[in-house]
Amino acid sequence: MNNEIFWLIRLGLAAQLFTREQALTVLKAVGREAQLMDFAQKLIDDSLVHDVEKLEALAGQAMARAAVGPPPGNPLLDDDAAPRPAGGTRPATASAPAGAPQFPFDRIGSLDDAALADAMRQLLIDAGKFGASDLHLSAGSKPFLRKHRALTPITEHILTDEESLRLNTVLLAEHQKNVFLERRDYDLALALDATNRYRVNLMFHKWGPSGSYRMVPAGIPKLDQLGLRNLEAIRKLLSYHNGLILITGPVGAGKTTTLAAMVGELNEQREDHIITVEDPIEVVQAPKGCNVTQREVGPHTKSFFTALKGALREDPDVIVIGELRDLETIEMAISASETGHLVIGTMHTSDAATTLNRLLDVFPPAQQTQIRASVAESLRGVVCQRLLPSTDGGLVVACEIMISNTAIQALIREGKTAGLRNTMETGVKEGMCIMENVVLELYQQKKISKETALINVTTRNVRQKIEPSATSTAPMGAAAPAKK
Hints:
The protein is an alpha/beta fold and 484 residues long. 39% of the residues lie in helices and 18% in strands. It has 18 helices and 13 strands. The strands form two sheets. Strands 9-8-10-11-7-12-13 form a seven-stranded mixed β-sheet, with helices on both faces. Strand 12 and strand 13 form a beta hairpin. Residues 79-94, 472-478 and 480-484 have low confidence and may be disordered.
């Protein structure tokens, strides 16, 4: 029997589309040399399956899975292929790491919504206790966790589209579920209680619904707990009462954590009005010395731009923008920073030079001279960070800091961002540091491996200090993946 039929039987049994006895009957009728479509058509012809659309979807999944390999076990012989009665237990799988959260994935169909919601809440809580940063539940795939950048499945069970839809919507209010089904994309902040919060993205893909759950730190981190370099330089940036501060880095670099720590420090040190615009709200900032107004794109405002435009009429001292992603938002942020507000925003860029180029290049050529002058005057500094896999199995922060001074301002006005590196190297006393030099130091301190260090540097002289025989350059970008 070919692998495609094996997979269709396993997926069909998990979705309760037909029984094991019906699958055996059809297989006997079409013969073990039959093709997938012959088997599926026989199920329809014999009126064993009435949901033809669902069967077609599972057949597509079966073809994709078969291209990778056969399913684990024999779905016609083992009990793992079909949902188990309530109260059953699932043995640990070989791929699940020790201590990984447990969940009755093979019994989803037999659980009512209340029981499934309770199990889902416990899965999220246990994933956080396990140390995972993300949980992924996707149709056509095994559920898996990300811990220290490594992806690890927590079961051999392949989620059907129906199972994935139930798992990813069981904790939603009815109006949230309707929005998701209408838009086919949905971002939200999920709070199970005061200490267990998650940033959630729901979407549909080729095989069905999918959900990604990012664990949000239970408390507000302190700046000196993050492993950032040159904290005095960063605190000096926060001491200004106007200007623009940018926190940048690739996805998963810890920008949200750093931003939350900065807001937390301002909240404790000042007596100001802080307005944050986030998508969604992740870390809740309770007012301390400051009055903190947190707004979420969607429930509270239409977009970052509209919230930022409104913020200028709301008597703010500090404005925090979750992401500077379009021309209107960037232009408004620069304008706000010039008119007596401290503006802090994030961007998905890898170093200071790239950040400035991205910030400026969104503007049309006719505005370049004016906007370069504005940025030169308003920019206070750029903090670029990455999370690199460490030699002890965890993560370590690599941080580049650019502090605006007279030389930096001149380069920005003249559009000579290529000269930023040399200027930053001469600005060490002001707290500046270059990402590649920081990576080299982390390697020399044996905090990261040679492989990780080489992937995160590009200049030949730095690479040769790591590996004397290295002469080629590697693209700058995401950190080396942690070894599984």
